[in-house]
Amino acid sequence: MRPRRTWVGVLVAVLLVVLAFASLFVGVSDVSPSSVLTGGPDSDAAFLLVASRIPRTVAVLLAGASLGIAGLIMQMLVRNKFVEPGTTGVSEFATLGMLATMVFLPGLAVVGKMGVAAVFGLFGTWVFLRVVRVVPVRQLVLVPLVGIMLGGVVGAVTTFFAYRLDLLQSLGQWSQGSFATIMQGRYEFLWIAGLMVVLAWVAADRFSVIGLGEEFATNLGLDYRRVVAVGMVIIAVITAAVLVTAGMIPFLGLVVPNIVSLIIGDNVRRSIPWVAGIGAVFVLACDLIARVVRFPYEIPLGVIVGIIGAALFLWLLLRRRSRAH
Amino acid sequence: MRTAVRPLAALALPLSAVLALSACGGSDAAAETAASEAETVTFTWDRNIAAEDADPQYEETTVEVPKNPENIVVFDMASLDTIGALGGEVSGAPLDSVPEYLQDALADDAFNVGTLFEADIVEIEAQQPDLIVIAGRSSALYEDLSEIAPTVDLSLRGSYTETLERNTTFLGEVLGAEDEAEAAIAELEEGIEEARAATADAGTGLGLMVSGGELSALSPSRDSSDARGARGGLIYDAFGVEPVVEDIRAATHGEPVSFEFLLETNPDHLWVVDRDAATNTEGAQAAAAVLDNEIVKQTTAYQNDQIIYLDPTAWYVVFGGVETTKIMIDDVTQIAG
Question: Which of A181, B73, B104, B233 could form a disulfide with B218 if both were Cys (CB 3.0 to 4.6 A apart)?
Fold first, then answer.
């Protein structure tokens, strides 16, 4: 297996570099490597690279990497391959938090909104973990189903209030991720999500152990509750940071860790860079498509990720089923 | 038939084709019978009977409404505006959506009929209106509301000015305020002409909607029978602004664009509709704050101080009606030649 794994790793790394490079030089304005270097007649190039292209590319990288990690951690906590913030109600709770800030704390700065969204997301993770405890876990698909139902209920509550308060269209904006207006000064909160990735990496071995079950972890002398709490914070903060800056990006946290698990297995420490890398590649590719399909206009990224992510998710599901028989 | 093509002296443009047709179709005999009973005004329009908006199917619909109705319900802010401007009063409206400057058009004990999109059928039935006016957002309510009272749809048809004239003339007749309607139309025509003169040689413009920190380019509503191109897009259609890009799709909320798009297309004027301000979305970042960044500062419009913030209520919520059009004219004439 080893040579094949190395080969995939090289492929991911090359894709990451190529796509990141493309992301820097695809856009409405004409910014090419040569125009940046020479300055030339189009002196805007260097300025745009710094003010718009680099921020957007970095934002996409951070969002893609961190959402993958959020999914991975969630899967470890629940010991189920079909959960991620979007299938467990966490995203919906965070969105409800955003709505709450608009209604009750309208003057709040973005960091405050993110904080409230994170607290709601944390609560959502807690509720989900509680609910899952009383559900017989044997049925693999039942767990995400419960999560999706939970998310549906919370989403309905959010939609109801948004409807009553005439905020439906604002709600629509958060639920459709987009990097179209990312530029300097409008994405920096994603670095917090990046920080969470580092935290996840530091605590990686603990999450691997958690993934073996509470009893096993406790027997190994691990403070189960504390590790779960750290995981919940990582998930909630990543979800909130991405929601505040770009909006909801579905399926990513689900699909990417599953693909990685197919390639290298379930060791968290080893899979973290893979999940981060493939997550970043996935969102980079989707964001490029969003920019190019209706050039010079854009398509919401969430739509593209939704289509591709849903297809991959189906493939994973069907593949699993054919293996089972 | 009371609806007639009267010699509107100051009127340069003809009435909308539908109205003219319906007027020509009526014979004198029919007019006399109608007059001998309760007086009515006839309104004819092409009603979209398709289930999906994307694929409209039109059916000519004619409705006779009573003259001088006592109890008018409107779901359309533009009609509320015009009724108020012609000295009439409305007894029912989506009260939460009525902007400050149109409050006078409401009766003192006006009741709430729901929202711009949904009707409180029970309440409306209880209030027994004589006339219900819908348009645009509320067009889909026709089936339900027409069972309660004569219902007309004053949605945008043809150009903005044509619709404005058609609706003002019709409502003037309904209210028995034909002269006021005529005077209002003349005044607005003149104002619009002045605004068009101001934009004529002023270079290119882009209608931009800002909402939740996101930008969308508004359509030049070339297909003017489709109200979806309206709103901020009216700057092109009604006020003659030369669009900096032609092919923006006629979508209600425009097409998502990036800040780079503004720099690259670089219009001479940026006409900004702050959607969150229009819908009173509290705590949303003001459009001016969203546009206050390094990339926008490189644009010609910014450097020449030609980023014009349009009255959000007038351009996004109401867009139509006598008072509103005056506000729109004032907005457009801010442009520097």
Answer: B233
